[in-house]
């Protein structure tokens, strides 16, 4: 399927595979029908009933979205910051959406890593191939393994191992995720387009649905474009390497901001290999008086880092986590 978010190209790809598209659409409509019937009954009963049941309806919708997979979760998260599109109860529920999923089989991860290594054995690159028996973390898009590189192994630039160490995080993309995501994004957009095409002179409830769908479509398009970029680990590697260079090229943040080094020879579209870094979440730092100097230093470092990004490099880390 197309690897960038281009609705006509995605539509053409899945139009040539109508059975998969129809099956996914039917499953989604079946899952949504009960929730929609309940909402319409609330609307028919009046505004007081809508308000009284909004929390319950919102929680049910969040559960449905979470069950449908990563594309729905990403879109739900994008909509959750738009108070102009959804009532408060729905915003609050959708803001709790997480992409926590069970890991996929490590045998599939091993196969993808071998493919990225040009068919070479894991034993030729890593000290212990059993590191790929179980991931240390899993999410909707991929999962991560902690491994150690073999000195002089395949894919290492000269002096890279000595400079950055051999312990690495190997992120492996979930098999078939591009097919799943593009199909789901197409289904979501098609349903929104159908709702946006409702007659403008219909009942008030349908008019609200029509206007809401019209407002959702541009939100979907922005979220979908970014999401498909997340599926390209090669792009992530490029960005990480550039950010690493930026943070070492400006004196005010050199040595203060650590960027995990990317082993480019061991990374590609579906596999990303980076230096393993042990750290602490900022949220783990307490507010007791003894941590005052540390907190002050962290604030200064973060402020300097973002001022460098804004004013010096023009290249921003746009997804900071604790």
Structure description:
By secondary structure, the chain is an alpha+beta fold. It has 11 helices and 4 strands. A 4-stranded antiparallel β-sheet has the order 1-2-3-4. A hairpin with a 3-residue loop joins β1 (137-138) and β2 (142-148). The longest helix is centred in the first third of the chain and has 28 residues, at 18-45. The mean pLDDT is 91.
Profile the largest sheet: 4 strands, antiparallel
Q: Which structural class is indicated by helix and strand composition?
A: alpha+beta
Number of strands: 4
In quaternary terms, these chains amount to single chain
Write out the strand line-up for the largest beta sheet, numbering strands in chain order. 1-2-3-4
Considering DSSP H and I runs of 4 or more, what fraction of the residues is helical? 40-55%
SSE run? HHHHHHEEHEHHHEH
Tell me the distance between the termini: 34 Å
Strand content: 5-15%
What is the mean pLDDT?
A: 91
- H/I helix tally: 11
* Whole-angstrom Rg: 23 Å
**What is the global morphology?**
globular
Please specify the SSE layout and strand pairing.
Blueprint: H1 7-15, H2 18-45, H3 47-67, H4 70-79, H5 88-94, H6 106-116, E1 137-138, E2 142-148, H7 160-164, E3 167-173, H8 177-196, H9 204-230, H10 233-249, E4 271-275, H11 292-313
Antiparallel strand pairs: 1-2, 2-3, 3-4
Helix pairs in contact: 2-3, 3-5, 4-9, 8-9
